[in-house]
Amino acid sequence: MSAYKAEGTHLLADLSGIASDQLTSCARIEALLRAAAQAAGAHILHSHFHAFGPGLGVTGVVLLAESHISIHTWPEEAFAAVDIFMCGAAAPQRALDVLRTALAPAHCRVRTVQRCAVDETITE
């Protein structure tokens, strides 16, 4: 595996209007994020997921050579917050497309941030 430049695309997606039964299973959410990473051409290093109890949400992360995909779900709000950061040749939009197709949210708000190493301090 080659080294990656310190630049990439970071997608922050708020998915709402999701059927709550889609947001409670650790195994299902983990399999979905792993499939999303593979669709993006990313290399999975490790994953860790936690369910908060029957009918409650899930939180988890898939660590990638290219960075990560994480999710936090609130089935009681029909909501999932997704964070996809990838560098190299990986395609984060493909990962998001997989998640949107599987979860079928009524609404999706995405913010895109281009990440890179800079020589100066930037304050927003």
- Report low-confidence residues grouped into runs of 5 or more: none
Shape: globular
Binned, the helix content reads: 10-25%
Strand content is 35-45%
Largest sheet: 6 strands, antiparallel
Radius of gyration: 15 Å
Order of helices and strands: EHEEEEHE
The beta-strand count equals: 6
User: How far is it from the N-terminal to the C-terminal residue, by CA?
Assistant: 35 Å
Strand order of the largest sheet: 2-3-4-5-1-6
Integer average pLDDT:
93
SS class: alpha+beta
- What is the helix tally? 2
Structural commentary:
The chain has 124 residues and is of the alpha+beta class. Helix content is 21%, strand content 42%. The protein contains two helices and six strands. The chain has helices at residues 26-39, 92-103, and strands at 7-16, 44-51, 58-64, 67-74, 79-87, 107-116. Strands 2-3-4-5-1-6 form a six-stranded antiparallel sheet, covered by helices on one side. β3 (58-64) and β4 (67-74) form a beta hairpin. The radius of gyration is 15 Å and the shape is globular.
Can you give keywords for this protein?
124 residues; alpha+beta; 6 strands; 42% strand; globular
Summary of the model, kept short:
It contains two helices and six strands.
Layout of SSEs?
Layout: E1 7-16, H1 26-39, E2 44-51, E3 58-64, E4 67-74, E5 79-87, H2 92-103, E6 107-116
Antiparallel strand pairs: 1-5, 1-6, 2-3, 3-4, 4-5
Helix pairs in contact: 1-2
